[in-house]
Amino acid sequence: MTELALYLDDGGHPDDQPYLVVAGYVATEAQWIAFESAWRQILNRFKLGSEFHMTDFMRDRYTTLKRDQILGELALTTKRHTLRPFVCAIDIAAWKRVNSEFALEECHGAPFAIAARGLQKELRFWEAENLGAGDRMLVFVEEGTKHYGQMEQIFKRDKIPLPARVPKSMPQVQPSDILAWEMFNWLKNGSPRHAGRNLDRLTRPIRKQQGFGAIFYETDLRSLCRDSNVLLRASLRPGDTIVFHSEKKRLRKRTIK
């Protein structure tokens, strides 16, 4: 039996950013143990403190060469000690447009819930192809994520194992922060044909083998609504409610405004 773990973090924000990204890496327990030691050594050598935050790092006054050196070493360590990355993103403007027409949030949740659900679907496909009958996968997400509770209820409804929350101080979640940041900025810059240097380093091995990740655009969200029979808002009256059982003795109830 092999113990594996996926650590997730998010990038962007549903309130004031154009995209929201959920990203992370899968590795075996032994790989994560070796990773932690190697990661801390790099942070110590470059005097980066005990926690690496990509947004803070990019604000610091490093030369281009120094910044690339640090990110290159972190990317190499991540590559050496993980099996593969997972990414799912959602176009926030598209979500708002579709949500104004369909009861999308009431049925499938806020952008974080939809992106996390999409990533979990990709993970299930990968598990079916790569895990044995006795292998076990655990999923963790960085605590403090907005709309985690909403995602929790959606996962319970769909009988998906819940991710456990972990602090940002855990080294295993910090590469996910880098990947989510890089993916968010690639999307924000118009999804250029060629990925930036660091995003390329973080994802090149898996991109050469197979596609990875998913992005929910407006067409995808409309298909989701049609395929799952989400009601049009025009067919609902103020005060109507949409209810589903997320767990025994608990209803998730949303009132239409």
Work out the helix count. 10
Q: Estimate the helix proportion, in percent.
A: 40-55%
User: How far is the first residue's CA from the last residue's CA?
Assistant: 50 Å
| Radius of gyration computed on alpha carbons | 19 Å
Mean pLDDT: 89
Strand content: 15-25%
3D structure, described in words:
The protein has a single domain (3-255), classed as Ribonuclease H-like superfamily/Ribonuclease H (Nucleotidyltransferase, domain 5). Helices cover 48% and strands 21% of the residues. The protein contains 10 helices and 8 strands. The strands form 2 sheets. It has a 6-stranded mixed beta sheet, sandwiched between helices. β1 (3-12) and β2 (19-28) form a beta hairpin. The chain is globular, with a radius of gyration of 19 Å.
Question: How would you briefly describe this protein structure?
Answer:
With 257 residues, the chain is an alpha/beta fold. It has helices spanning 29-45, 54-59, 64-81, 92-101, 104-108, 111-130, 148-157, 174-188, 197-209, 218-227, and strands at 3-12, 19-28, 84-91, 136-142, 164-166, 214-216, 241-247, 250-255.
